[in-house]
Write a structure and sequence with these properties.
A two-stranded antiparallel ribbon has the order 1-2. A two-stranded antiparallel sheet has the order 3-4. By secondary structure, the chain is mostly beta strands. The chain has a domain of 42 residues. The protein contains 1 helix and 4 strands; from the N terminus they run E-E-H-E-E.
Length: 67
């Protein structure tokens, strides 16, 4: 996750005071997606194995890569 400005190829989702955006093609590949926030930060659960994409090598055993 990172700060960004919306682009033509993005979908945007407003939840409370937060607006999330992601490339439409990427959302289709990873859905369903659920983003939770706790005192530890954001936790992203998606219908993709982040370990298979190389993300799991960052040291987080759950594949969230510190998000």
């Amino acid at each position: 996750m990172a700060l960004d400005k919306p682009k033509d190829q993005d979908s945007t989702y407003k939840v409370g005071d937060l607006t999330f955006l992601a490339e439409k093609d990427f959302i289709e590949k990873i859905k369903p997606i659920k983003i939770d926030f706790s005192n530890m930060g954001f936790n992203i659960n998606a219908g993709i194995d982040f370990g298979a994409s190389g993300c799991g090598t960052c040291g987080d055993s759950d594949g969230t890569c510190g998000t």
